[in-house]
Amino acid sequence: MVNRIFLVVVIILSCTQFARAQQGKPRSLKQSIESAIPYIQQNAQVWIDQKKCVSCHQVPFGLWSTQVAKNAGHKIDEELFQKQSKWALEFCDSNLNAKTMKRDGAGTDTIYQMLLSGIAATEPDTTDSLATLLTTLQEPDGSFKPAGQLPSQKRPVLETTHVSTGWAAIMYNDIGSKQYQGTVDNALKYSMSDFRGDSTEWLAVKSILDQQQQSKTESAALARLLESQQDDGGWGWDHTSNSDAIATGVALYALSRCGGTYQDAIDEARTFLIRTQSDDGNWIVPSTKKARHNKPGATSNYWGTCWAVIGLVSTE
How far apart are CA 182 and CA 18, in angstroms? Predict the structure, then answer.
């Protein structure tokens, strides 16, 4: 009897110690990605239900991060994903500007984000419709004006304009259709100018563009991007800011597209993201808006969580 009691006590203590060890054990890369997906999908649906719109910072990134996770074999709510994708594509393809009452795709940034996400890959007609619509929003100088809250970010509007234009050029290059070559050429003339930005996102965008252009010289932007990685393994909004999930996810995505060997930098960034992830699967991120003085908010937390997943999956 005594031996049985002793054995039960040993088993209970062993299970308790194992549970404590598991609680203190860092998430694996797979666990980190899959623990973020429910947060992303559920909050996207809340936005859709309450706001009834596709914004430049919310729904596209939710769908983008879920799409890449799905492509990599991670668990997602497939039914919810299909429902959200269908709704978002239909919304963007039919949305009218409130002032002009002309079709605007819910804004420049929303269009290229939706197409970069890959959710329209099986819908060539929708892809063509949105890509063609975006060409009509290009400025005479080749740029694409940032929309929504993006002009109020904590960097010069000119830099944000270069970022938006760069992402649009990347998207068109990914599509690869000669139909949009004039739009791409004009965007590249603007984006590949002598302008020098300081934000991690600008460095990432410029690094990808340099890679797409198959530059014969080493990308100065990529070199700066690698140099700006911080001691904790992450990247900040710029080199003066603390590391966060938005910048680190963006940097990882850029490295995944630049064709080189950056495994040490990638490993350190992954470690940073896994270590700083909240228990509920999201990341707490300082706002990108200048007026919020780096205070975290629901938008930046969501945006950062999506970018973290995109970066983690893209470098698996």
Answer: 61
Residue among 140, 147, 155, 83 nearest 109 (CA) = 147
Alpha-carbon distance 219 to 224, whole Å? 9
Q: Are 304 and 245 in contact (CB under 8 A)?
A: yes
Per-residue confidence (pLDDT) for residue 261, from 0 to 100 = 84
pTM summary value:
0.90
Q: Is the pLDDT of residue 11 over 50?
A: no
- The region that residue 184 occupies, defined by phi over 0 for left and psi between -120 and 50 for alpha, beta otherwise, is alpha
Q: Determine the Cα–Cα distance for residues 179 and 177; give it in Å rounded to an integer.
A: 5
Tell me what pLDDT residue 216 has: 56
Question: Are the beta carbons of 273 and 251 closer than 8 angstroms?
Answer: no
| Contact status, residue 41 vs residue 12, Cβ threshold 8 Å | no
What is the spatial distance between Cα 186 and Cα 169, in angstroms, rounded to a whole number? Answer: 9
Mean pLDDT confidence for 14-43: 74
Contact 155, 197 (CB under 8 A): yes
Mean pLDDT of the chain: 90
- In the predicted structure, residue 32 carries a pLDDT above the cut 90: yes
Which pair of structure tokens corresponds to residue 241? Answer: 């800011």
Nearest alpha carbon to residue 146 among 132, 158, 136: 158
Task: Assess contact for 269 and 311: CB atoms under 8 A.
Answer: yes
Distance CA 183, CA 142 (A): 7
Q: What is the dihedral of CA 219, 220, 225, 231, to 10 degrees?
A: 120
Q: Which two tokens stand for residue 21?
A: 């060890």
**Count H helices, E strands: the chain?**
13, 2
